[in-house]
Amino acid sequence: MSIIFEVVDTILSEPTQRPGSRKGRPNHSPEFRRRLAMAACESGVSVARLARENGLNANLVYTWRRRYLAEQQAEAVQLVPVAIVNEVSSVNAPPALSESEAVRPAGSIEVRIGRAVVKVEGTVDAEMLRTVLGSLRS
Which superkingdom is the protein from (predicted)? Predict the structure, then answer.
């Protein structure tokens, strides 16, 4: 004699025997997994109780719920198309700067080796940096 516990809206039924199912390891339909995962996501629902009532391991229901939530999040994320336009209107364009007014890229490089500190500021070409670092070796 079997005893069935019924809790409103938490028991989901599926045929116990399906053609082509493996013995010992049932193949649950994707729709059944989805319905159970949706039920597990509702507030106040005990996943362990839901699994027990449907004859499943709680870890399996947690896995289905995690996959369901990941699918829901993936569906919510969408990329927005972006177009890059190189046109600049003459009304909003800044006035052109002469070479003397042009701002040169500024930066600094600081190298610490032991107690020695070498700091190079401003525009530095690769050859000058090689010379400075080469002098530290000697």
Answer: Bacteria
